[in-house]
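Box 3.1 A note on notation
Throughout this textbook, protein chains are presented in two layers. The first layer is the amino acid sequence; the second is a token string describing backbone geometry. Keep the layers aligned when reading.
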Amino acid sequence: MVRKAAVVTVSNGSYLQGQPNGRLPSMDSRQPQEKVVLKKKVTLLRGISIIIGTIIGAGIFISPKGILKNTGSVGMSLMVWTACGILSLFGALCYAELGTCIKKSGGHYTYILEAFGPLPAFVRVWVELLVIRPAATAVISLAFGRYILEPFFMQCEIPELAIKLITAVGITLVMVLNSTSVSWSARIQIFLTFCKLVAILIIIVPGVIQLIKGETQHFKNAFSGNDASIMGLPLAFYSGMYAYSGWFYLNFVTEEVENPEKNIPLAICISMIIVTVGYVLTNVAYFTTISAGELLLSKAVAVTFAERLMGSFSLAVPVFVALSCFGSMNGGIFAVSRMFFVASREGHLPEILSMIHVRKHTPLPAVIVLHPLTMIMLFSGDLYSLLNFLSFARWLFIGLVVAGLIYLRYKRPDMPRPFKVPLFIPALFSFTCLFMVALSLYSDPVNTGIGFAITLTGVPAYYLFIVWDKKPKWFRKLLDTGTEALQILLEVVPSEEDQKS
């Protein structure tokens, strides 16, 4: 399946200094004069659009009731939305430090590899490639399919087959876009981010007008209501942190960011402030028109809100939700494909995934590898249960990454750090992540145990595919022949930076 890792021992304290050898022929006859590398095309504005466009998906428009349900009151739910935004900002600042001192793409994978070595890094990318990313992409894509069809089925239920077919078209379109042009995928992401912010403003502005008119009855006795259970508050934080997740995606494309020392921290801070303010004000706007009880009963809160205040204009809301989902799909594919690209470059995934299209300069194989896996997820099984199995894995590895920042402060104190956060920030954030993991083990041991077992399959896979170097000759030849055939078919070559090694 994969070749032996090119780097299995520490070199000057860093796994990232080595490069894979034994590349296939580079198809020199196909190469243009221009260098075949991933170019630095992610500007500050594009970086902001990647973060905002990936964080804001369907959740804030459809069903923000998880926090309200687990807090029991309007006031406490708004406090949790604010606190989760601040905690997410802390995590994002930690990633900003990592992104400016480790100038490699790959996000979680790269930082775990740097701090803790190849085994945990391989397990992270293994679970991401096989399950987490295809399932997460399928889920957000299903929301896109449902809401893009909503205006055409106002009087009846949307057929499930129609939703899945239009979802498949949407997934394919995103894959083609990211395979064709980095610039165009970034431009479309900027446009879709603008659409998301317009959608939020469509909710916030009428909400502010309602407040000016004195519609504050749902805020009276804001902290009284149904008593939340003992487990309620931590679960509310879990829901909130999930709603804010996505702040780490710019770190997946660090090598393509212009002036990363400046633009990564700026993009992260600007994005998180915009998202946090937007989320809190959107929830305030909901409560100017919808009571807590009505919100808990609503299937799509933004649609209910729009129907009450905007009349026929409410038909536009499903379209904006669909565009929001499409932006999350596009940003997620754009970013995560770079994780697979880097993992292949380090020898942890098939060699073909680290190759670049000779003309388009996109990591074509790393993008399209997700297409068949996502389609399998889309047309089979219970996606939401699968995500529940593995939701703990996300926070486990994010907590591990931020703990790795603390570890690197002591392991490599002389590492250049253009941007540095106070130590209490990574300490608090990593503790929060590990607390949520422990909570999930306590509150849902069955689903969490299944997710834990799925994650652990990465350990034998690592020793089988990476460490074991006595694979049969026929197997090696089959891999080499397959890789060479795919190179010719996809018109991809190793990047020139890899060929120099």
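Confidence is low (pLDDT under 50) at residues 4-32. The longest helix spans residues 118-149.
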